[in-house]
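Aim 2 progress update. The chain analyzed this quarter is reproduced below.
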Amino acid sequence: MILSSMDADTVLHQILLIVRNYFEVADCAVLMVDAAAGELYIRAENGKDRGPKTRFAIGPDGIVGYVAASKQPIYVPDVAKDQRYFSLNKDIRSELALPLLVRDEVIAVLNIESEQIDFFTDDMIGLLAMFAAQAAVALENARLYTNERRRMRQIEFINLIARSATSASDLDQLLVTLCDLISDTFEGSEVSILLRDKGGVLILSAHTGGHHPDPETYRSSARSGIIAEAMEARMNVIANNVTEKIKESPQWKPCLYNSAAEMAVPLLSLGETLGVVVISHTTANAFTTDDRSISQAAGDVCATAIKNVQLSEELRRVANTDSLTGVYNQRYFHIAVAHEISRAKRFEKQFSIIMFDLQNFSHVNKTLGFDAGDDLLRDIAHLLASSVRNTDTICRYSADRFALILPETSENDVLSVQNKIITGLTRLAEGRPGASHALTAAFGRVQYPADGTTELELVRHLLSRIDRQKPHSSGAGA
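Predicted structure tokens:
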């Protein structure tokens, strides 16, 4: 029966069932060894509750602890006469404790008790000793199987993260996906990812499960809580009983108000701390040693994935941004127009493009110097940013030529934007020391689909309309 399953809970249930049904003993417990803590803890039991003390030190004090330390079975015919017996149940009169050995290593103790003095006969003890040997094999098989499943789960989890990082088009998308994957792995948990900003401050960047949390609680935890502990240790940290943790250290702050257990995993990449993953659960003692191992592996892969996407975004930003003015460059202009055409076709919308060429910019360079010319171009970029919506795209098309892509705009909207720019250019010229000429521009504007349905058609119309304006450079025409 006990060798027929590879599931640890099923094996433990069968052990208790056999002891009760075949040996007619109701009070039985299997205590597993926690080697790291040097303790035994009750993993499964039948009969009366053994009381609040569910962990026992491995050593000379206590019957089960002595059995785990000596690797020898002990039979106590009368527990009242043995000082090692912990009186957890006043009705118990005799006790038999058997080590469950695998390759001379104690993995658990089978503890059987009776309310009768000297209940266990020699035959019963012999049979139970043989049964304990089989139970040890069954538990070890279940442990190995569980470890193998854990490793497979870990590999699958890491592969999912790696695939998500490969397919992610931006950092926000990746962070949401990572939160969902981690939440699915740690069932019933809330997952938060916090990343450092340019100033080194941790910012809540993604969250899944429950309601959107209060960012202030994370800041408190970063000062004195599990985030602070994980950052200092540079490895994952578990607080499996938040209530007890706060009792021990009143200044310790949880990340979520309803957390009963929390785990924090710092995101480290090439020695740099990118941020932290916080996994919260409403049940105390929700996290196991296996969970800690999986979370650490996941944190390492997540950190690499996040760093790769950050680098990719930075490369795209550099490739698509004009280094002088900070607005998009001509390369991105063509990408943005193609994207806007696709979007306009899909939703049957229209959009407009304004392009203008500064008419006397060379005069600024000649009279005031190239540094003054660069300052002027930067000022024009700021002017454009203050004249359009957040959804509009500003590009420096060439040396002194700028373009604006304006989604879902009418002819009147475009004229309004153009007039703002003309007014702004006049003010820029007036405010520059030594400027003797008005700052004028030749404008061209097109609208999709009225002026063309392809990027090539729209750009050709723009450039030709600007060229027609150039002879009239004494004023900014339409």
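The radius of gyration is 36 Å. The CA atoms of residues 170 and 313 lie 7 Å apart. These observations will guide the mutagenesis experiments scheduled for the next reporting period.
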